[in-house]
Amino acid sequence: MASKEKEFQNEKQVFSEHIQKAGLRNTAQRELILDIFLRTEEHLSSEDLYWLVHKEDSSVGHTTVYRTLKLLTDAGLAREVRFGDGKSYYEHHYNHEHHDHMICTECGKVVEFFSPEIESLQETVAAEYGFRLTHHSMRILGLCGICQKKDSESAASGAQPRVRVKSVFS
Amino acid sequence: MASKEKEFQNEKQVFSEHIQKAGLRNTAQRELILDIFLRTEEHLSSEDLYWLVHKEDSSVGHTTVYRTLKLLTDAGLAREVRFGDGKSYYEHHYNHEHHDHMICTECGKVVEFFSPEIESLQETVAAEYGFRLTHHSMRILGLCGICQKKDSESAASGAQPRVRVKSVFS
DNA sequence: TTGATTGCAAAGCATTTGCATGCTA
DNA sequence: TAGCATGCAAATGCTTTGCAATCAA
Fold first, then answer.
1. Domains plus CATH for chain A?
2. Torsional sign, CA A101, A102, A103, A105
């Protein structure tokens, strides 16, 4: 692995370029937030990222994290995702393949998957209704293997799911 | 069509039974809210439904509409749906086939569709990852036929989309 | 009569905005 | 120096909760 300074050079350059094109400015806060975002290979809420940033620089505020996540999204480095608990999460988007999510409603585990067959069927369906598809969102909710076992073994454990899915959508 | 009094008898009985089983009570507000919900074949937000109810009985409050929509959902008469604008919408669920949604990001039109092929592929994918699928949510976002034309004809019209999709999810 | 229900007001969340101050280009 | 960025506090939008008064069973 490259040294800390050389990591994520591509992503950082994409960000710089986006900032310059838009007539914005580079700041220490934005650099720090981007760096921590890139170092964390998870689905992060703004709140999650705020605390990670806070550990390294406690002067950075919530607002800046929110605004920077939007900026990262605009720059194509992040993608906003929702799992149904009312918050927005963000995941890496630069050089990452498109995928959908499968979420365990018990422990909150999120699995990324991709099905070319489903993708192409979505195109077909959209065309049937005269739509030009621009994006889609698909979540599969269920129990992961581990939680299926836990459920059959015993009833309630005290564990708190990370993502509490309040409702089922379409 | 049956007379107003005889309409939706099945739905109303389902509601009565749910209320009795749960040890709850029938009230004029709940009857009115259910009635208006059933008469409206659309995706309604709590706010939408509140105003429709308000027209017929202005003494009914927001809170009661929220609580009654939850009750209808518990009773299996309604289903909560989210389109990505931060609000919850509700649609008829009793004796309605499962379906997914296609949403026009320009005018907010919502089309319901069902694809058995996609459904079965979802089962397959879930099984591949050891998940037991319980629900899923799928939204296709794009431009409907009409808005594609409008877009090519001219640029901006003053029309306000009913659903403003703020973010793209998975 | 008893306890569920109602509606108001207030509280909760996640997110956004106004604004004075600070800092980059 | 100009004007974008920051961070605080306040505002927002949707939803939930506390509570006293009301009403169904």
1. 2-92 (1.10.10.10), 97-170 (3.30.1490.190)
2. positive
